[in-house]
Amino acid sequence: MEPLSVLFDHKCNMLLQEREILFAGLINKNGKIISGGFKPGINLIGEFEREMVFMEHVLMATMNKDFDGCLGRILYTVSKREKVIMINFSIGSFLFLVAVDPMENVDKEVTKIQKSLDNLAFCV
Prior knowledge:
single chain; 5 strands; alpha+beta; DUF6659; Beta-Lactamase; 124 residues; Roadblock/LAMTOR2 domain-containing protein
């Protein structure tokens, strides 16, 4: 079996081929990126701010798990900002984070990303 980072690098690279995808990456519980990255030529924020954003999304996902018993597991979360849409999926102890052009249809993008992740759920 391939290492997790190799499997997700492949998925991230496939998603980054899409015009509207700006970032696709697997983030660990410490907010560090372990696979994927930004589309070449895209630099939305600096390195320090990037780590802060990753950690913010990890913390939100971790805190939201407190309600899984009564409300059910979160399938994904979306943060729509003026300049980017951030979509994240909890995968085991990791977070799969995707940044999308803000003019795109969120539901369409979520469906596309979910389909690309379907066969990886068993890997983590």
